[in-house]
Design brief:
Blueprint (H helix, E strand, L loop, with lengths): L6 H11 L15 E2 L8 H14 L2 E2 H10 L5 H4 L12 H4 L1 H17 L5 E7 L5 H12 L1 H4 L3 E7 L3 H12 L3 E3 L7 E6 L5 E5 L10 E6 L8 E6 L2 E10 L2 E9 L5 H5 L9 E4 L1 H17 L1 E10 L8 E4 L2 E3 L9 E3 L2 E2 H8 L3 E8 H7 L2 H10 L4 H15 L1 H5 L2 E8 L36
Parallel strand pairs: 1-15, 3-4, 3-8, 4-7, 8-13, 13-17
Antiparallel strand pairs: 2-10, 5-6, 6-7, 9-10, 9-12, 10-11, 13-19, 14-15, 14-16, 18-19
């Protein structure tokens, strides 16, 4: 259905799109080839895992992912700067500023749709290098006359010390410092050049309550998953074990009897032969839903994903190539497609769920084509023009990021309520109830 945004939202988009801005070019991690086998092992993590398994038995895939990615000593996210051309993958904000600009417009649009609350907390889960937040804040500076009356603050949920330092440099320059005690909920705080406060947390529950817009871009795909296999004896959990013939290698095995996870996480009407369930992601979505229901706001989740149709999606990336998930744990990114049907189910009735829709559809609904026209008109250098076109192609091409990434929204039910009808004498003619205001990105933009 084609709907028309309100005049104010149209004006926001026009004002942001009138600025040419920069446009860095990069490649997508989606176009990676298979591993070449030149990785260097990280024996400490492998020794840790094999010793644990030999002592207590096979571990779940969720436990394996948690150790490999977030172990406080040798975890991949704790030790590495994995983003960008020199890292293991590139995300949409690293490809082009336009991605963050459009999300910035979406945030302002939702803030206006919620009635312009006095306080606005921008909360990003897994902020990468801070590129997305930086692009969003630039939109806020361009729309200062619109959002200037609100008290805006930025809250970043990040477990990686390496990435938090990169984010601080990107967003605050030298105007940030770490907390005196390691157990402080806010372990780093600072402010941007414009004086906007920025705080860092390790857990979502430490972020203050209040009206918030939550962003999670390529965050849920890295959360630990449980894997389950249908067998003749019912559902069994896939585990990670030491290979008995090669004791320095790991292998997948199927649990001989039900586990607590296989007994509770697989739906009774499940038809797929193999299922991945991210219980940790479900808990986070429930936290987001409770906060939105209580305090207002919205959440936008963008990630590799599906709507309950895929089976085995667990994979690794290293040096922009596919990587064996059990080889050299701690040296590669581990990821699995997000099951948005699961997130929708666990979100509950307290919030409204939108999507998932493809990244291509979301960005086109947000006006990416109009933005491209502005950028191309302002660019005379042929090489830069080609970079613009290539970046647009990576973001929207169905064979690249365009349909592999999905957008999913959580909104307060009040946001979708029809506007109140004017008070006055009742008319005898029965009029149709006014439609609820459309949500940017999830409905097609019209400038009529």
């Amino acid at each position: 259905m084609r709907l028309c945004f309100g005049v104010k939202t149209q004006q926001l988009i026009r004002r942001v799109f009138s600025h040419p801005g920069r446009w860095p070019a990069a490649e997508s991690r989606l176009s990676c080839s298979s591993t070449s086998g030149d990785e260097k092992p990280r024996p400490s993590m492998l020794r840790h895992l094999t010793s644990r398994i030999k002592a207590t038995g096979p571990i779940t895939v969720a436990e394996y992912m948690r150790e490999a990615l977030t172990n406080p000593v040798t975890g991949y996210y704790v030790r590495n700067n994995m983003l960008g051309p020199d890292g293991d993958f590139i995300t949409s904000p690293e490809i082009s500023q336009i991605f963050g600009e459009l999300l910035g417009v979406w945030i302002v649009s939702e803030w206006i749709g919620a009635g312009r609350p006095e306080r606005l907390q921008l909360v990003e889960l897994g902020p990468g290098k801070g590129s997305l937040a930086s692009d969003i804040l630039r939109v806020f500076s361009q729309l200062q006359s619109v959002v200037g009356g609100a008290s805006v603050s930025l809250h970043l949920v990040e477990v990686s010390p390496v990435l938090s330092r990169l984010q601080a440099q990107q967003l605050t320059g030298s105007h940030s410092r770490e907390a005196d005690a390691e157990d402080e909920p806010v372990y780093r705080h600072g402010e941007t050049a414009a004086g906007l406060p920025v705080s860092w947390y390790r857990r979502l529950e430490d972020v203050p309550t209040g009206f918030s817009i939550f962003l999670a871009h390529e965050f849920f795909d890295a959360l630990p998953i449980h894997k389950f296999q249908r067998t003749q004896r019912g559902w069994r959990e896939v585990m990670v074990d030491v290979d008995p013939e090669k004791t320095e290698q790991l292998r997948f095995v199927v649990a001989p009897s039900p586990t607590l996870a296989s007994s509770t996480l697989v739906q009774a009407d499940e038809r797929r032969p193999h299922v991945e369930v991210c219980a940790e992601g479900g808990v986070l979505v429930q936290q987001l839903a409770r906060r939105i229901e209580a305090d207002g706001g919205a959440a936008l989740i963008a990630d590799y994903g599906h709507d309950g149709t895929k089976t085995d999606t667990f994979r690794g990336f290293k040096g922009h190539r596919l990587h064996d998930v059990l080889s050299f744990p701690g040296s590669a990114d581990l990821t699995a497609d997000v099951d948005f049907s699961f997130l929708r189910r666990v979100a509950g009735e307290g919030v409204a769920c939108l999507g998932p829709i493809t990244q291509r559809t979301f960005l086109k609904n947000m006006g990416i084509d109009s933005r491209m026209q502005v950028l191309l008109r302002s660019c005379s250098d042929e090489s830069t023009r080609q970079q613009l076109i290539d970046s647009y192609d990576v973001l929207t091409n169905a064979a690249k990021m365009g349909e592999r990434f999905l957008f999913f929204g959580l909104l307060h039910h009040g946001r979708l309520a029809p506007p109140p009808q004017p008070q006055g004498p009742k008319l005898e003619i029965r009029k149709r109830k006014p439609a609820p205001p459309p949500v940017a990105g999830f409905t097609e933009l019209s400038f009529s």
